[in-house]
Design brief:
By secondary structure, the protein is of the alpha/beta class. It has 14 helices and nine strands. Helix 6 links the parallel strand 6 and strand 7. Helix 5 packs across helix 6, helix 8 packs across helix 9 and helix 8 crosses helix 12. The model has no long low-confidence stretch (mean pLDDT 93). One of its GO terms (molecular function) is epoxide hydrolase activity. Belongs to the peptidase S33 family. Keywords: Hydrolase.
């Protein structure tokens, strides 16, 4: 679907920029050993993890083949309120297909959904439900909140002709989805989340699953939040440090792929490709700093999310009013449980993973 307002877009990184990245990587000097002897993973990802990814980026990774994969689906640019929004739009053939807005978080990107957008729009079984898949890139600007993003994404769906749609979201995308599912209920009709920070009622006895995910969440908050503290307080400092530093981007963003996913998934060849593609996208688009502004812009105002995740969802004005599904992934950053999540919305579906 195109119009004067919606322009086709093709990912085409200039050859000189690809070569420059390769040159910068070849000129990078790694320490050659753990800086702290026997550090393991106590100080962050292991040195061996970093070295393996570096070698794969230099010797094996082919940006052009990944770029060709990206261009197998239609990309577009449209200006909404003077902001250019990039998005993937994969339409299904079925006249009964459901419009589905998929919203990524950090350090993800539109590519986060690359393994499923064709499967959702063109399922192998004709009897399965199909979807018109819309995957925008999250905007990041000074003074721009996730509520602004929700407003823009609702306008995007309507511009595409979808006056009613469903939403899939996680991480920071959850707060975009929560805004849509609480304030835009005439258009957002259903939402599924794989992140929904929430708290159990006081005084309840925890189930075994609730004990497990509480331990996971406590460990995350205690030992893995340094990146978030930095980005929500000094985004310019880390943003400039990472801007033209591919190995820095790899460590900063790749760490989350290392810490917030099932270890078994990380053994799959695609996992290395996913991390290197994410780092390459941030490098080529010069948007590593804009991408982290959500941590700063949503932490210090009257509707702050970042300091009050669990409390935020319990406020009546933020309650999800449409049908709400949640899948609890143990290895996500802050997995929750049915009894906690159902306090924040009209929960009709729940699954433990």
């Amino acid at each position: 679907m195109t119009s004067p307002e919606i322009r086709p877009f093709r990912i085409d990184v200039p050859a000189e920029e690809v070569e420059r990245l390769k040159r910068k990587l070849r000129d990078t000097r790694l320490p050659g050993r753990p800086i702290v002897p026997n550090a393991g993973s106590s100080y962050g990802p292991t040195y061996q993890w970093a070295e393996n990814l570096y070698k794969a980026w230099v010797n094996d990774y082919d940006w052009y083949s990944v770029q060709a994969e990206m261009n197998q689906v239609p990309h577009y640019i449209t200006a909404i309120v003077e902001i250019n929004i990039h998005f993937v739009h994969v339409r299904a053939k079925s006249p009964n297909a459901i419009p589905l807005l998929m919203v990524h978080g950090w350090p993800g990107s539109f590519w986060e959904f690359s393994q499923i957008w064709s499967r959702l729009s063109c399922p192998p079984n004709d009897k399965e439900i199909s979807f018109h898949v819309v995957v925008p890139s999250m905007p990041g600007f000074s003074g721009w909140t996730l509520r602004d993003t929700a407003r823009i994404f609702d306008k995007l769906m309507k511009r595409l002709g979808y006056n009613q749609y469903m939403v899939q979201c996680g991480d920071w995308g959850h707060f975009v989805g929560r805004e849509l599912a609480s304030q835009y209920t005439n258009s957002c009709r259903l939402i599924h989340c794989n992140f929904s920070s929430s708290s159990l009622p006081q005084g309840v006895e925890y189930t075994e699953r609730e004990k497990e995910v509480a331990h996971r969440a406590d460990d995350w908050l205690e030992n893995h939040m340094g990146y978030a503290v930095c980005m929500r307080t000094r985004p310019h400092t880390i943003g400039i440090a990472l801007h033209d530093n591919p190995m820095g981007i790899l460590m900063w963003a790749g760490e989350k792929y290392n810490e917030a996913a099932d270890p078994k998934a990380q053994e799959q060849p695609f996992w290395t490709k996913a991390i290197l593609t994410t780092a390459s996208l941030y490098y080529f688009t010069n948007c590593i700093m804009p991408s982290i502004l959500c941590y700063y812009e949503n932490a210090y105002h009257e509707n702050a999310y970042h300091e009050n995740f669990a409390e935020f969802g319990l406020r009546p004005e933020n309650r999800i009013k449409v049908s709400f599904g949640y899948t609890s992934f143990y290895w996500d950053t802050e997995p929750s449980s049915r009894r906690a999540v159902e306090r924040t919305g009209n929960l009709v579906f729940y699954r433990d993973m």
